[in-house]
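Protein in question kept underneath.
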Amino acid sequence: MILDERSDFVLLGGSGTITLQSPAIARELSLPTIQKLTHMAKEARVPTMLHSCGKERKLVQWCAEETDLNCINPLEVAPMGDCDLAEVKRAFGGRIALMGNLHTAQVMLIGTPADVERAAREAIDAAGAGGGFILSTGDQCGRDTPDENIYKLIEVASTYGRYA
């Protein structure tokens, strides 16, 4: 029904619903559903994005190698996740768009605008080359995230992160 409505894109997953399972269970139960849904969306020419917080490095690999998924997020860093953005970009950036990676608490919530700028530049340097990277937080911006940190993220994306 979603595909019949010609949505701009379809978002799959949610929070840690996939990554909180063991890899064996996720591969057995979640991957076939992702494969089917992304295939259907590809046939309908509707892009797909998958969101699953937590340790998703293995999930990135499965999605890049075994599904028709277009984009994956949030690519969280330790200790909440296990994604090294530069490594994920090298391994899978040619097959799937990557989104995320700025730490939601240490950088966005309690960091300074200078911390946000540093982290945003590092993320762009790690994954921006060749396209296919969307600068974003590792998950969400908490309610008390300082406005100046959000504005700094937008500024860095607008000035340092633009593609030619």
Q: What stands out?
A: The chain has a mean pLDDT of 93. The chain has one domain: 3-159.
